[in-house]
Each structure stands twice: as structure tokens, then as C-alpha cells.
Design brief:
This is Thioredoxin family protein. With 187 residues, the chain is an alpha+beta fold. The protein is 56% helix and 11% strand. β3 and β4 form a beta hairpin.
């Protein structure tokens, strides 16, 4: 896991890479995902402007004496990641080191943490100080997962567009609070 950590990047580099891929796609996938990079960067910016760490959650983090690190497997174009990653980075800022491993740069890491057989992101790995994986979380909070199950159960009456809309409204209102609480519960 230390090797993956060493290849991971900090949040500001993650944003720079996302902007670079938006402006100068290096391959066909990046060109096809241009709209998603644009949306992802807009949502990240909104989260950064609106997110304020919850005082009770900060106190809970302190009480847990967590001395490990947080590694997030992610990509800027991902809608779930754009709502969650910036809140996590800001929450742990100055307390625990957070790095991001780009999923598409090396699939060997995400393939160890598949969600129902898929490479869904973000995937948060809670590492101890020796880089052992203590726990993992992702790709979305329980409420978002519930919306996904609702869509899968009845896609004719609860369409994909309805699911995506409800999920983004939830993310905009919740501002990472549920994701952070669920991760705190794993520390």
C-alpha cells in the first residue's frame, strides 16, 4: 500500500490534472469525458466554497486519536467524487494527510476494492500509520446508495435522470456531512 501512497497526489495536483484534461485531452476517453470534467470541476469548486467542517464531527475526529492517513481512489470527472472528495480533503486538512490515487492511472488498486464487481469511485481507504488498510468506504453515502437501489428497482418510474437529479440535489444540500460521518464511524 505504501507504493500506491507514494504514487498518489495531493488535492491541488488532482485539480490541476482535471483542468489540464479538460483543456487538452490526451486521449479519446478524456475527449469524450470533457463534459464530465467540466461538471466535476464546477461541483468541486461549489463544494470548496460552501463546505464548512462540522464542529461535532471535528470533535469526534479528535476523540478518536486517529493517527493514520486517508487515500482516496478517484477521478475528477466522477459526479460522486466531485461532491465527496473536496469535503473530505477540507475536513481532514491539518489533521490527517489525504492523498488521491487516480483510478485510471493504475487499475490494480481499484481492482482490490470493487463495489459489486465495478470500479466505482470514490473509494476511500483508511490507512494506519504503517500504510495498512484499516477500512474502506465508498462510492457514495448510504442515502445516495438508497437512491441508486430505488432507480434499479423501478427504472421506468424512477428514471436515471430522476436518480441523477435527486443525487446531485442531495449532495448540494448535504455538503459531505454524511460521507464524513460514515468514514468517521470506520476510524
Amino acid at each position: 500500500m505504501k507504493n500506491y501512497w507514494d504514487k498518489a497526489i495531493y488535492f491541488d495536483e488532482y485539480i490541476k490534472i482535471g483542468k489540464s484534461r479538460l483543456e487538452n485531452p490526451a486521449n479519446q476517453q478524456e475527449a469524450e469525458f470533457k463534459h464530465y470534467y467540466e461538471l466535476g470541476l464546477q461541483r468541486i469548486d461549489r463544494t470548496l466554497k460552501k463546505y464548512t467542517p462540522n464542529e461535532e464531527q471535528l470533535a469526534e475526529l479528535v476523540s478518536k486519536n486517529f493517527d493514520g492517513k486517508i487515500m482516496i481512489i478517484s477521478e475528477v470527472w466522477c459526479g460522486d467524487a466531485s461532491a465527496t472528495v473536496p469535503a473530505l480533503v477540507k475536513f481532514f486538512e491539518g489533521k490527517n494527510e489525504v492523498k488521491i490515487f487516480l483510478r485510471d492511472s493504475d487499475k490494480s488498486l481499484i481492482n482490490q476494492y470493487l463495489t459489486n464487481g465495478t470500479e466505482s469511485i470514490p473509494k476511500v481507504l483508511v490507512l494506519d500509520k504503517d500504510y495498512n488498510v484499516k477500512n474502506s468506504w465508498g462510492p457514495r453515502p448510504k442515502f445516495g446508495h438508497g437512491l441508486l437501489l430505488k432507480y434499479k428497482a423501478d427504472p421506468e418510474n424512477y428514471t436515471k435522470d430522476m436518480f441523477y437529479n435527486d443525487l446531485q440535489v442531495y449532495y448540494a444540500k448535504n455538503r459531505g456531512k454524511d460521507a464524513i460521518q460514515e468514514i468517521l464511524d470506520l476510524l
